[in-house]
Each structure stands twice: as C-alpha cells, then as structure tokens.
C-alpha cells in the first residue's frame, strides 16, 4: 500500500489562504495549531518564494499588522484545468475555421499582449523598462530574470545590452499543441520595446534549458 505524502505546514498555510483569502500570522498560528514563531518563519520562506504577498494594516498607535494572501504564483500551485480548456478551445477553433485562421488569431492576441506590456511598462530608460517587463512576466508564472551585457563588438555592438532569460514556459502545454504560440513571443517583445532590437539567443522549443532574448538600443 502506497503511503500518502505528508502535508507540510507551508502547504497548510497555502491551503488556508486559498480558502480564507487573507490572514495574519497570529490567526494562522491559532488556526493551524503552530507556534507564532514557526508560522513567521514559514511566512518569510513563502514570501521569498513569491508564493504569498502581504499588506500592512495599521491598528491604533502600535506597529502595523500584516495580512497575508496568495500571490498569483501561489494560486497556480493548486490544480486547475486552464491549460486543458485553452487547448480544447484552440482545437475547436482549428476544426471550425482552420489552422491558418487560428494562427492569425494567436498573432493578434500576442500583439494585444505586447501593447498591454508597453502600456504597463510606461516611460523610462531601457534598463527600467526591461526590469518592469521581467517583473510582469514573473507575475504570469515565468521564472524570469535579466542582467546587463557589456558591448563586445559582436552581438552587442552598441551597448549596453540586456539579456532577458526565462527558465520555464508558463504556457508550455499549449505550445506543445500550437508551436506558433512561442514563435510570437519574439515579436511581442519587439513591440513592447519599440526603440530596441530584440534577438532570440536561446529557445526551450529547440531543446535548450531556457529562452533568452538580447535587448539593445537601436542605432
């Protein structure tokens, strides 16, 4: 007989916040029967993992109280059928209007997403906008980061350049069935950063362990 994997206190915290919406450290300690000190340690870890968020609530003249809730990444830890629904919907569209029309629809969707990124990134230097773009991608479930690349006279001729790296694909199940979804990501970044050139340097679809995009100011 296979034994069930034990549920950790961290899992209990995530499940409690999923059901209740938000809670203080003290409420979590009392509800889960765990010491306040242990709860705060787990909350610190979960915050570092970007699975929960918190907001300060002032009560009287003392120190503010913090209320914790699931982040989008935290919610994505729980079973959902979003991918299956999206794939089924795209399959139905392909059967109804054809694959070419579905590709056109997906391209329009990426153009719309790129404009949304552009609006939310706002004004600022290339570095500031790259940082905002990466943070937007993180909120959507991508394990993303960026770093500056010095001019090397080759790929980064004008410098400075910025490398955006994504180690996972938040829509991988959809991409397996509709590969053109990934192909539009490069176009999306180019639209979101209109004064830059964007080059794909690595691609998960081609068996590499990450997707990479080199961003540099247009000469």
From TrEMBL:
Residues 11-49 form the Helix-turn-helix type domain. InterPro entries: ArsR-like_HTH, HTH_11, SUF_FeS_clus_asmb_SufR_cyano, WH-like_DNA-bd_sf, WH_DNA-bd_sf. It comes from the Bacteria. NCBIfam families: SufR_cyano. This is Iron-sulfur cluster biosynthesis transcriptional regulator SufR. It comes from Leptolyngbya iicbica LK. The lineage of its organism: Bacteria, Bacillati, Cyanobacteriota, Cyanophyceae, Leptolyngbyales.
């Amino acid at each position: 007989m296979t034994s069930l994997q034990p549920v950790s206190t961290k899992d209990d915290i995530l499940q409690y916040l999923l059901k209740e919406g938000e809670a203080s450290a003290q409420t979590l300690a009392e509800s889960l029967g765990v010491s306040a000190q242990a709860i705060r340690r787990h909350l610190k870890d979960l915050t570092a993992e970007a699975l929960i968020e918190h907001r300060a609530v002032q009560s009287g003249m003392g120190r503010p109280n913090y209320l914790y809730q699931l982040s989008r990444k935290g919610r994505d830890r729980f079973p959902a059928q979003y991918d299956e629904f999206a794939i089924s919907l795209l399959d139905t569209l392909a059967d109804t209007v054809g694959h070419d029309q579905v590709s056109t629809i997906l391209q329009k969707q990426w153009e719309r997403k790129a404009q949304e990124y552009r609006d939310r990134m706002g004004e600022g230097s290339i570095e500031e906008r790259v940082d905002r773009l990466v943070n937007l991608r993180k909120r959507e479930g991508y394990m993303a980061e960026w770093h500056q690349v010095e001019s090397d006279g080759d790929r980064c001729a004008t410098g400075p350049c910025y490398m955006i790296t994504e180690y996972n694909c938040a829509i991988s199940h959809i991409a397996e069935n509709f590969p053109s979804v990934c192909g539009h990501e490069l176009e999306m970044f180019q639209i979101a950063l209109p004064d830059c050139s964007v080059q794909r340097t690595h691609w998960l679809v081609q068996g590499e362990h990450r997707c990479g995009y080199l961003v540099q100011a247009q000469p």
